[in-house]
Design brief:
This protein has 3 helices and 4 strands, in the order E-E-H-E-E-H-H. By secondary structure, the chain is α+β, with helices and mostly antiparallel strands. It has a 4-stranded mixed β-sheet with strand order 1-2-4-3. A hairpin with a 4-residue loop joins strand 3 (31-34) and strand 4. Helix 2 crosses helix 3 (78-103). It is globular and about 50 Å long. Bound molecules: zinc ion (ZN). Zinc ion (ZN) is lined by residues 58, 62, 77, 80.
Length: 104
């Protein structure tokens, strides 16, 4: 299992990356974000392409919404679900934007 800490809006969050048994989380979940303990768990035992990255974005979005004071309900799933799918697309649009603006 890998463990490290990353500040999210200035608040250190402990990340634990591992399999279902190492993380001891519900098997129906791919990750968790505990805004009280400041801890994010991410499963790395699935074979679905890009799922790990989507789960990371999903759980980080929970922490951002909480630490940013926007949404304190940890069960709010719509925005994290949206961001986990859309963020990579937003990022690729930004890359195209950067490339295009340099060519002008
Ligand atoms: Zn969630």
């Amino acid at each position: 299992m890998k463990c490290f800490s990353i500040p999210i809006l200035g608040v250190p969050y402990k990340f634990k990356i591992g399999n279902l048994y190492e993380l001891n989380i519900d098997e129906s979940l791919q990750g968790t974000c505990d805004t009280y303990l400041k801890e994010i768990n991410i499963r790395d035992d699935n074979e679905i392409p890009n799922l790990l990255k989507e789960v990371v974005i999903h759980e980080i979005t929970h922490a951002l919404l909480y630490e940013g004071g926007l949404i304190t309900d940890a069960n709010e799933e719509k925005i994290p679900e949206f961001m986990s799918v859309m963020f990579p697309r937003i990022f690729s649009v930004l890359e195209e934007f950067d490339k295009s603006i340099k060519e002008c």
